[in-house]
Amino acid sequence: MFDRRHPPEPKPREASINDRRADDMALDTVAAIVRSLAEFALEQEGIDIPSFQANAEAWARHVSLASPPPGAPENDLQTRKGRRDWEGVRRFVRGYLSSSFRRMGTVTADLRQVIWVFIRSISQSFAEDENTDTRLLAQMNRLEELVAANATDVLKREVMDAVRTLTEVIKERNQRQRERMQFLGSQLHTLGSALESARRESETDPLTRVPNRKAFDEYLTRTVEMYKAFGQPMTLLIVDVDHFKSINDTEGHMTGDEVLRRIADALSKTFLRKSDFVARLGGDEFAIILRETSETDARVLTERMLARIHSISIVQKTMPDATRPATVSIGLAPITATDDEKTWIARADRALYQAKQAGRDRIATVAD
After folding, report:
1. What share of residues in the chain are helix, strand, coil (percent, to 5)?
2. Do 349 and 225 reside in the same domain of the chain?
3. Which of 99, 122, 245, 308 is 20–30 Å from 62 (CA)?
4. Distance (Å, rounded) from C-alpha 331 to C-alpha 358?
5. 3-state class of 306 per DSSP?
6. 179-227 pLDDT, tens per residue?
7. Are residues 196 and 221 in the same domain?
8. What's the rounded Cα separation, in Å, for the pair 150 and 141?
9. Structural contact between residues 140 and 126, judged by C-beta atoms closer than 8 angstroms
10. Per-residue exposure over 275-310, b if at least 16 CB sit within 10 Å of its own CB, e if not
């Protein structure tokens, strides 16, 4: 029963004010905690961060100002009476922590899966290299242990170390590959030069050092193709050393070889353009292909060639003090629209036969 004689002593006014201040501070502290959750929010499953931050700010105002909680109508009686939905606040905070924890678990699992794929890919890529760097293998093994051990913080550091190690290994391997490629390039250049030298040697007559029949056939084919494409004048000369068998029989093969060398030299010094092609067909027979050269111009050059050949002296064994000039017979054939390689050579051969029949040491032409 209430004792009217001893009524309860009223609280001092100062204590009541302190209690209200403590209550206000507690409310402000809870509201600040909720706002901190929004400020440093982590990703959650099915909730975007801006929406979560707006919802957290609404709960913070509800705690500090007794405004309606999220989802409550504006005329909510409990809110107007100043009461807070503490159960709703607890559900909001717990829901955030639970959702962000699940999200972190998913992210960590995805990270582990990516690292597993990374490890397997790197291991497979370098498995075929006999010189696989032991540092990289050790780093990969360490990563495997950490992934299995679920040590996320250490795993992050190890991943960064692995990336640095891998970068160093790749740089070193790239440097070795560049050096290897430079060495191979040098070897290929040397081999290419050797092959080119061998090719030129295979296409060069060993006695006279002018191109041989093989090289002549290839150049003749290309010349005919150029004529068909551009229609420029081309002229073919077949040159035969006069009485060469007699020179070999009476003066000897050494003298005969020397005559062939000097005649080849005379031909090369007469036809000096890069496109002029002098070749030895075999025996005592030579051929000259003159691109972009008319019959008239070819005849002028051939006359100069004859004069140069006449300056070659052949020493006679039977009369050591006596010499005689070398002479050649020449068949000249300008190319025609109906010519191919065979018909062009055949016309030049017919012209050569006519030069011999006419007494040798001369030029003969068969136009068609």
Report:
1. 65, 10, 25
2. yes
3. 99
4. 12
5. helix
6. 878 877 777 777 667 666 666 778 899 999 999 999 999 999 999 999 9
7. no
8. 15
9. no
10. ebbbbbbeebbbbbbbbebebeebbebbeebbebbe
Whole-number Å distance between alpha carbons of 349 and 351: 5
Does residue 293 share a domain with residue 230?
Answer: yes
Tokens encoding 93:
């905070």
Q: In which order are the strands placed within the sheet that holds 277-282?
A: 277-282, 285-291, 234-241, 328-334, 363-365
pTM exceeding 0.85: no
Question: What whole-number distance in Å separates Cα of residue 82 and Cα of residue 93?
Answer: 21
16-20, 133-137, 257-261: least confident range: 133-137
Encoded tokens for 313: 């002296």
H-assigned helices in 128-212: 134-149, 152-202
Note down the domain range covering 34: 13-104
Rounded CA-CA distance 238/280 in Å is 10
* Number of domains into which the chain is organized: 3
Q: Say how far apart CA 112 and CA 294 lie, in whole Å.
A: 82
CATH number of the domain where residue 251 is located: 3.30.70.270
Of the residues 202, 233, 254, the one at which a domain ends:
202
> Residue 111 falls within a domain, yes or no?
no
Tokens of 232: 């420029």
| 141: in domain | yes
* Same domain membership, residue 160 and residue 35: no
Question: Is residue 6 included in any domain, yes or no?
Answer: no
